[in-house]
Amino acid sequence: MIDSVSRTTRIGSDSRLEARDVTLVYGDRTISRDLRFKVPDGLFTVIVGPNACGKSTLLRALARIIRPDAGHVVLDGKEIERIPARHVARTLGLLPQSSVAPDGITVADLVARGRYPHQSFLQRWSQADEDAVSWAMRTARVEALAERAVDELSGGQRQRVWIAMVLAQETPLLLLDEPTTFLDIAHQIELLNLLRDLNRRQGNTVVAVLHDLNQACRYADHIVAMRDGSIVAEGNPRSVMTAELVKSVFGLAAIVIDDPVTGDPMVVPLDEMATSP
């Protein structure tokens, strides 16, 4: 059984990446206003919330994909917009919700693009780059697909290839927007175990958007619950994932019990019609 107390004590106040009073706009719609969020260093953080609540927009702002209309995203004490793009890409890796590969590109070539931030006029492809790509492909289990064209693969295979590309960047911070999309349940668990292993063994700070609340509770050290563009609760899974929060954030009647395997909170939806008198 996982010790929930030990997971809680890992959470500190330090943060290399944070949003300071950011206002985020998508098109003509304001998604978040005056949002504050510190990514806890060295932890596996999971962001949960209903569709269109601002999870992906927050992740994109943290990764400098979109610029806040107000406020700042800060990386290592500096406004991220003032940091050279190559340095940001060496520090922070992003797996977006959807990605499009160039026509005809092979798996090996796409994964190798994760090494772009490490290349320069004076520093070309090296054995370290080769080793990083090989490790990423092996870790994401796409080695056998190396010579296949990405656009020939299944959705699940493509997702693992994109994950390999992000891993090849070898960044200390990883941001992943719905990384289990297109994966069957076995590969979902395999990926989440991989991310937890990267966090626990290598010290990577991981932030992932997940829809499955029970996977969030099992794998996260720190959970962030969002609704209507705001963070309504954050903390360790046991303090955050309550029946009241599930009802308030998702509009879902549920009970929260102990997972019989790990002891973590487990959300069990209720059939309100079946239980009503």
TrEMBL record:
Domain ABC transporter: 17-253
GO cellular component labels: plasma membrane
Key words of the record: ATP-binding, Cell membrane, Ion transport, Iron, Iron transport, Membrane, Nucleotide-binding, Transport
Major localisation: membrane
Pfam families in UniProt: ABC_tran (PF00005)
GO function terms (MF aspect): ATP binding; ATP hydrolysis activity
Superkingdom per UniProt: Bacteria
Membrane association type: Peripheral membrane protein
A single BP term in Gene Ontology: iron ion transport
Coiled coil region boundaries: none
Gene3D superfamilies attached to this UniProt entry: P-loop containing nucleotide triphosphate hydrolases
Localisation: Cell membrane
Family under the similarity heading: Belongs to the ABC transporter superfamily.
Protein name: Iron complex transport system ATP-binding protein
